[in-house]
Amino acid sequence: MAEAKRIERPLSPFMFVQYYRLQLTAVTSVMIRFTGNALMAAVFFLIVWLLALASGPDAFETVEWWLTSFIFDLFWFFMLWSVWYHYLGGLRHLIFDAGKGLEIETAEKMGWICVYGSVVLTILTVIVIWL
Amino acid sequence: MHYQTDRKRAAGKGSAHSGAEHHWFMIVSSVALACMVPTWIYIFGNALGSGYEASLATMSRPFPAILTALVLIVGMLHFNKGGRVMIEDYTQGTARKLLIMAYTGFSYVMIACGMFALVKIAL
User: Which of A18, A93, A125, B43 has the smallest set of CB atoms within 10 Å of its CB?
Assistant: First the structure.
């Protein structure tokens, strides 16, 4: 039997921890999943807030005190960043799905837009809401 | 001799017998959320920490209440289906089944609790 010619085949991205060099486009894509899951904490506390609001002033006062404490301010800040990152990352995937922006240079540029854009949008939101 | 075209004989014989409706749902719900979420953040961000009376007044108005309901329902279905793609990528067997059940259960519990609260506030 003839010796099989070895061909350099592309590896699955799911092997990346061991064999695959991390790339910006992969990391920014995984972060969409991470932020999407993290946002469920915001949904949970939104529901706590709504249920407290529905059950009356006493329950609401306690819940509001917690949800506006310093630790929760940090939490909401992180959630705001998550929602904006997920938002921009989702837009990037809509562009990819339309068959555009798939050249490496453009794809990486859009990845950086997600990273920096989410921080900018988070700070802008904080300014708009709290000032 | 076949009188059917190749296209006709191939139709419906894909391995899964179904197509991209899961992915299409993610696209549709993401566009819906992209339109709703910025306004909703503004409303909720202003209501949070404004005190009982002001928060109740905001959530009693039709627009904030309906928008909150829509963001919650569409958002949780988006989370459920999107999370399922992730679970199917990384897990197998019983762990996969249990995680899909947990994600689905969480999604519907959040929707039900939110709807209950919104209706009670509105009444």
Answer: A18
Query: In total, how many domains does chain A have?
Result: 1
Domain assignment of residue A32, yes or no: yes
- Structure-token pair, residue A71: 């630790």
CATH number, domain of A122, equals: 1.20.1300.10
Cβ neighbours of B121 in A, within 8 Å: 50, 53-54
Decide if A77 is inside a domain. Answer: yes
- Residue from A16, A53, A92 to probe the interface with B (highest B Cβ count within 10 Å): A53
Residue A72, domain extent: 24-130
Q: Do the domain assignments include residue A104?
A: yes
Sign (positive/negative) of CA torsion A50, A55, A60, A63? negative
Q: Which domains are delineated in chain B?
A: 25-122 (1.20.1300.10)
Over residues A72-115, the pLDDT tens digits come to 999 999 999 999 999 999 999 999 999 998 898 999 999 999 99
CB–CB of A39/B76 below 8 Å?
no
User: What pTM, to 2 d.p., does this model score?
Assistant: 0.84
**Contact between A53 and B79 using a beta-carbon 8 Å cutoff:** no
Contacts of residue A68 in chain B, CB cutoff 8 Å?
Answer: 48-49
Give the confidence band of A24 by pLDDT, cuts at 50, 70, 90.
confident
